[in-house]
Amino acid sequence: MLTDLHVHLRKDAPNTPASEAFTTANVDRYREVAEDRGISELGVSEHIYRFRQALSVWEHSFWRAEAKDDLDDYVGFLREDTDLRVGIEADFIVGREDRLANLIDQHDLDYVVGSVHFLGDQAVDHDGYDIWETNAHRPDEVWRRYFETLGEAARTGLFDILAHPDLVKVWGPHRPRPDGDLRRFYDRAMDGIAETRPAIEVSTAGLRKPVGELYPATAFLEMCLEAGCPVALSSDAHEPRHVGYGYERALEVIDSLGVRELAVFEGRERRLEPIG
Ligand SMILES: [Zn+2]
Ligand SMILES: [Zn+2]
Fold first, then answer.
1. Whole-number CA gyration radius for the chain
2. At what angle do helices 139-156 and 183-196 cross, to 10 degrees?
3. How many Å lie between the centroid of ligand 1 and the Cα of residue 242?
4. Burial grade of 89 (CB within 10 A; 0-12, 13-18, 19 or more)
């Protein structure tokens, strides 16, 4: 069995209405690619900030610009018209834990994918709100904050899966990067991760980004496995052709670390299924 639990039916491009993304015809396009690549467990985790209801959690200008869809319609469509697992990709915003917990609890989800995209008002992966604009001379400081925030996200217990765990590296050579052994940064997240042991996403999205690597780095993944976290395997596809993208590479790495099972979710309950 293979999984892809971090999939977006919506493209990132502007002016792509929900009415085009959330249709059975569009879902069929994703299912077809998944079947070709041997992926039976397919789940969608749309960005929470795409939904109007997310403005009850945070009102960042990026969220205000993006919050167009209705979360109830999204969950209803997936539950009633498809056989997909129902997830959501929720940003961890420091200080907004209770508001996020309320919003999550109101919806019938199979799992919640937790992401750290923002540190304060600045993003690690969005050049419109680029954290590196004011921190280009402080790579150690940015990485330290990123991994501390990731650890805090895990500690809340709000997230079933930690998405793209070392996203801060996304720009690769186009942004500063700390020198030396990066485990000193990963360490900052480990107390929180060890406390709740969420599934750690092995994401092939990084292979398609400037960094050209899997998320997370193998050394970080090893630390999470040692802490007792299972693996959630996903592509973070935003279009059908990226479902299961680069899985050969991901499977090679997790196999070399002795991982033989993948996390799957139903009604926010986790179980492990053998990789096959
Ligand atoms: Zn993300
Ligand atoms: Zn995503």
1. 17
2. 10
3. 15
4. buried
Q: What does the alpha-carbon distance between residue 258 and residue 221 come to, in Å, rounded to a whole number?
A: 12
Contact residues for 86 (Cβ-Cβ < 8 A; gap 6+): 43, 44, 75, 78, 79, 108, 109, 110
CA of 249 to the centre of ligand 2 (A): 19
Q: What are the counts of helices (DSSP H) followed by strands (DSSP E) for the chain? A: 10, 11
Place of tokens 């400037």: 210
- Between the CA of 174 and the centroid of ligand 1 the distance, in Å, is 19
Packing angle, helices 183-196 and 218-226, rounded to 10: 30
Q: How far is the centre of ligand 1, averaged over its atoms, from the C-alpha of 89 (Å)?
A: 7
CB under 8 Å to 256, separation ≥6 — which residues?
A: none
Q: For 57-94, how does the pLDDT look when each residue is reduced to its tens digit (9 = 90+)?
A: 999 999 999 999 999 999 999 999 999 999 999 999 99
Q: Which residues surround ligand 2, an ion (CB under 5 A)?
A: 89, 236
Sheet holding 39-47: strands in order across?
2-7, 39-47, 85-91, 111-115, 161-162, 199-203, 231-234
SS3 22: coil
Cα dihedral 5, 103, 155, 151 sign = positive
51, 69 contact by CB (below 8 A): yes
Crossing angle between the packed helical segments 247-256 and 218-226, to the nearest 10 degrees: 50
pLDDT in tens, 127-160: 999 999 999 999 999 999 999 999 999 999 999 9
DSSP per residue, 107-138: S--SEEEEE--EETTEESS-GGGBTHHHHTT-
Give the Cα separation of 161 and 77 in Å (integer): 23
Q: Distance from the CA of 93 to the center of ligand 1, in angstroms?
A: 13
Q: pTM for the complete prediction?
A: 0.97
**Residue 201 bridge partners (DSSP):** 232
